[in-house]
Design a protein that fits this description.
By secondary structure, the protein is of the alpha/beta class. Helix content is 39%, strand content 17%. β10 and β11 form a beta hairpin. The model has no long low-confidence stretch (mean pLDDT 96). The protein is built from 11 helices and 11 strands. The site of 6-O-phosphono-beta-D-fructofuranose has 9 residues, from loops.
């Protein structure tokens, strides 16, 4: 068999480990031919590919980013009427001309939706979920999340000591456009006092009241972890909005830090290397069984798969009754609600 592999959407640590898992299993176990497609779905539109042999897959397990490059190209997005190339049609044509028997799409929610659309159009597609946001529906975990959690936690630990020295409020913004998994986990892992998630409706006056109470109770510094996707005015970052309001409402000295793309770069954590490898290997097993139109997923500790049609277009958000939120509240962590 001949298989194509592409990486699309925002990058994250562990993508190369997944490419290696797919490639090595395909070549060494099944004798398949593997074609690396450049820059996500753009590569299939512009016919930019290279054959991947075993040598090219060596030494990439620990590398950040993606050796194939990525883009946010969505071929199903309606273009301007003056630029009406039928991208899905082109992709199908190039897939057939290349002689592909299957296409592996490594990506987040948008990528899985495109993969589902291509499967519906008759291509043999397998999805592999990745993103630091951990918000892909149909899997317990995406790779990239654990690495980003380490990076964010280490950064907040460092901000902790400087906050303590100066007796300041530190507001730290972590990624998470729709889902607050990274804010919740890094906040809890680093002993955050306030954690604000896109999923929980908060009022900044409750945050201010809580921080003032801490100051009165001889806790003169505090750590506030906010997800970038919280409700806020359009022209301000989440950290700026929360930091500005805390200063205005409490008068306490406040500093802001946006962790940004640091969270997406660098070498994957051991857990992400293992998860990405398992996902990659399992994707090839599905192809060998001709079980197409599926996304590889983790359920408990088992790697399995779910139909792409069940995944596309849905987000996995932090549930309000998540047990970590419940435990955190019992330890007086504030989520910006009246009950804090
Ligand atoms: O990878 C997910 C994510 O990090 C989101 O949290 C963030 O909003 C988005 O990607 C930004 O990525 P880019 O600037 O590459 O589009």
């Amino acid at each position: 068999m001949k298989i194509g592999i592409l990486t699309a959407g925002g990058d994250c640590p562990g993508i190369n480990a997944a490419i290696r898992g797919v490639g090595k299993t395909a070549i060494l176990e099944y004798g398949m031919e593997v074609i690396g497609i450049s820059s996500g779905f753009l590569g299939l539109i512009n016919q930019e590919y290279t054959k991947l042999d075993e040598g090219q897959l060596s030494g990439i397990l620990t590398l950040g980013g993606t050796i194939l490059g990525t883009s946010r190209e969505n071929p199903f997005k309606k273009g301007s009427p003056f630029n009406a190339i039928d991208k899905p049609k082109l992709i199908k044509k190039h897939y057939r001309e290349l002689g592909l028997d299957a296409l592996v799409c490594i990506g987040g929610n948008g990528t899985q939706r495109t993969a589902a659309n291509l499967a519906e159009e008759g291509l043999n597609v397998i999805g592999i979920p990745k993103t630091i946001d951990n918000d892909v529906y149909g899997t317990d975990v995406t790779f990239g999340f654990d690495s980003a959690l380490w990076i964010a936690t280490e950064a907040i630990d460092r901000l902790h000591s400087t906050a303590n020295s100066h007796k300041r409020i530190m507001v730290i913004e972590v990624m998470g456009h729709h889902a607050g998994w990274l804010a919740l986990y890094s906040g809890m892992a680093s002993g955050g006092d306030v954690i604000l998630l896109p999923e929980i409706k908060f009022d900044v006056s409750y945050v201010a009241k809580y921080l003032k109470k801490r100051a009165v109770n001889k806790k003169p510094y505090s750590i506030v972890v906010v997800a970038e996707g919280i409700e806020k005015p359009k022209n301000e970052s989440a950290a700026r909005y929360i930091g500005r309001n805390i200063l205005e409402l409490t008068g306490l000295e406040t500093r802001e830090t946006i962790l940004g793309y640091i969270q997406r770069g660098g070498s994957p954590s051991p857990m992400d290397r293992v998860l990405a490898t398992r996902y990659g290997a399992y994707a090839v097993e599905l192809i060998a069984q001709k079980k197409f139109g599926e996304m590889v997923s983790l359920k408990g500790n088992t790697v399995t798969s779910v139909p792409l049609t069940e995944v596309g277009g849905q987000l996995r958000l932090v549930p309000m009754d998540h047990s970590l939120i419940e435990k955190a509240r019992k330890m007086d962590v504030c989520f910006g609600t009246e009950a804090c």
